[in-house]
Structures are given as structure tokens and as C-alpha cells.
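Data deposition worksheet. Section B asks for the primary sequence of the deposited chain exactly as it was used as input, without tags or linkers unless they were present during the calculation. Section C holds the resulting structure in C-alpha cell form. Section D is free text for depositor observations; keep each observation to a single sentence. Incomplete worksheets are returned to the depositor.
Section A, Depositor: J.P.
Section B:
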Amino acid sequence: MLSRGRVAVAGLSAVTGLFIVAAAASPAAACRGGGECYDRVSYPDVYRTVERPVVVERGYREVYETRPSVVVRQERVMLQPGRVGYAMTPPVTRTVFQEVVVRRAGWRWETTYGPYGERRCKVPVPAEVKVVPREILVHPGRRVRMVEPPVYGIRNRAVAVRPAQRYVVDYPPVIGYERTRVLARRGGTAWVRANTRW
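Section C:
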């Protein structure tokens, strides 16, 4: 019995000595003994709110064109140029009447019957004349030079007083600002010197 008690006491002493050695080697024991201690500290992520420009409405360009200013003016214009031509005049004639002998004068025998019997007489026959019309030339036709003057008229003509103009207007984009939360510094861990003892 005594031997078993001694063994138990000896084992308890050994465990107690081991615990004392371990406690003396821990950081808390070192800080309590006047050593320099550090704690591992976690830092969260740091965010900040910033404003950034955004395009609310895109810019665009518009092109305007004005019509030209036009007035109507009257002007004298040549519709047909003058020209020179030639024409033949008809001949001048006159109608005359002329006697034409259709049959010449002569003689013919006529037979008559009387109380003394048959008698033959030589009777003169006058000439047969016919009046016929005839055209005679008084003046022959001739070639005549004819000059035609130019033909003029009035025409309306559009005249541009002011030409068409083109305008270009540029509209800039509309810029707005939005607030957004951005990461300013990423968190992590760091060793900080301990100010208190455990």
C-alpha cells in the first residue's frame, strides 16, 4: 500500500511540475513576467462614398437648312432669231381676146330647082372666125429677198437674292452625378503590441 501511495504522489508531482513549466512558457506568462507581447487584430474593409459623372442624355447634332430667297423678274428675251429668206413672186399676166379663123372663106355650089329646071350656082362662103381668150405675160416672176426680224417676248425669271444657308447646332451631352460606395482600403490582420496583461 505504501509503495502504491508513493507512486501516486510521485506522478502527481511530475504532472504539477510539467504544468508549471508550460505556464511559464505561454505568452500570457511571458507578459506577466515583463515580456513584450503582441495581439493579432483584424481590420474591416474601409468604404467611402464618391460621386462620379454619368451620361444622362447623349449629345447630338442637328442640321438646319434654309431655303434661298428668290424674286421673280421680267426680262425681254429673243423667242426666235431673225432670218433672211427668198421667195418667188408670181408672174403678172393679162387676158386678151383674139379672133381665130376656124375655117377660111371659100366657095360652094348650091343647087336650086325652078320653072326652067335645075340650076347650079357658085356661092361664096365667108370665113368662120372664133374669138378665144389668151393669157399674155406682162411681168415675169422674180426672186425676192425677204428679211424676217427677230421675235421677242417677256419671260419671268427667278433670281436668287440670298442663297440657301446651312446651320449646324451641336447639343452637348447632359452629365449627372451619382453617389456610389467604393472600397477605399481592404481589411486584413495585423500584429499590435498588447497594452494589457492577461
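Section D:
The first strand starts at residue 38 and ends at 43.
The chain has two helices and 14 strands.
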